Each structure stands twice: as C-alpha cells, then as structure tokens.
C-alpha cells in the first residue's frame, strides 16, 4: 500500500483508500516534526547517528546543521496562520532542496555514505508534498 499525498481541500484531512490528503498546514506540521526529529538525533546520540551516516570530521558542523534543522522544524510545526504556512513552505522547500542537492552531489563522489540516498528520497517526497499542497491551498 502506497501512502500518497494528493490534492484536496485544506479542511479535509481524511484517509481515502490509499491516499492521504493534506494541504500546506498539514505538510508544514509533518515536515516540521520530521526536521525536528532528524535534527535532534545527532544532538542526542552522535554515536548512533554516525553509525548510520558515517563518522564526521567536524562534529561542530554536524551539531550546527542539527540545530538549524530543529529550528526550521519548530517554525514549520507551529505554523497556524496563512502567512506562517507560507513561510513554512519557503523554509520547507528550501531545506528539502538544499539537503537533496547535498545528497545527490556528494553520495556519487563518495564524500558521504550511500545511506544518504534514503534522505534524498525523503527530501524528494517533501518537495512533492509541497508541490501538491499548493493546489489545495488556492
């Protein structure tokens, strides 16, 4: 069964068959939670994070990125008004596009582990979710 984000009215957040329908507010909350959790992981346990994604030369840089992800995610997750959702969309698309670019540029060069391709899939899904939600929010 494939979970697919599709076009629907913002007020309708229902399961219909195999499709989960959501608008900008829902995408903001979901991606916000994803970013907060992803950012907290290396802050809570750098050892387990590095076990999956590989050792880091500069841990301060990993902690910086993690802190930024937590901050971006918190802003997204708390978006309530239309203006806040618009800003959450900008943060969400920008963050997903940046992380996706890093993944697809540096995995092939061997600079980062292939496990980052899993992240590339997630970031691609967030971009698709925002693209589809734009129709719902009109």
Descriptive overview:
- This protein is mainly alpha-helical and 138 residues long.
- The protein has one domain.
- Helix content is 68%, strand content 6%.
- The chain has helices spanning 24-44, 46-53, 59-77, 82-106, 116-136, and strands spanning 4-6, 15-16, 19-21.
- Strands 1-3-2 form a three-stranded mixed β-sheet.
- A hairpin with a 2-residue loop joins strand 2 (15-16) and strand 3 (19-21).
- Helix 1 crosses helix 4 (82-106).
- The protein is globular.
Percentage of residues assigned to helices: 55-70%
- Helix and strand content put the structural class at mainly alpha
Compute the average pLDDT: 88
Low-confidence stretches: 1-18
Q: How many domains, in number, for the residues?
A: 1
Number of distinct helices: 5
Q: Within the largest sheet, what's the order of strands? A: 1-3-2
How would a textbook summarize the main sheet? Answer: 3 strands, mixed
Indicate the radius of gyration in whole angstroms. 16 Å
Number of strands: 3
- Topology pattern, helix = H, strand = E: EEEHHHHH
Strand content: 5-15%
Gross geometry: globular
What gap, in angstroms, lies between the N and C termini?
A: 29 Å
């Amino acid at each position: 069964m494939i979970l697919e984000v599709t076009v629907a009215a913002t007020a309708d957040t229902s399961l219909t068959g195999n499709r989960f329908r959501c608008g900008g507010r829902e995408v903001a909350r979901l991606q916000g939670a994803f970013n907060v959790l992803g950012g907290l992981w290396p802050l809570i346990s750098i050892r387990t994070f590095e076990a999956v994604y590989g050792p880091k030369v500069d841990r301060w840089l990993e902690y910086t990125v993690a802190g930024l992800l937590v901050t971006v995610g918190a802003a997204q997750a708390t978006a309530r008004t239309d203006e806040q959702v618009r800003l959450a969309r900008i943060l969400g698309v920008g963050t997903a596009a940046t992380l996706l670019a890093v993944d697809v540029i540096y995995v092939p060069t061997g600079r980062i582990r292939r496990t980052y391709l899993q992240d590339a899939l997630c970031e691609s899904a967030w971009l698709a979710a925002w693209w589809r939600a734009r129709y719902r929010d009109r």
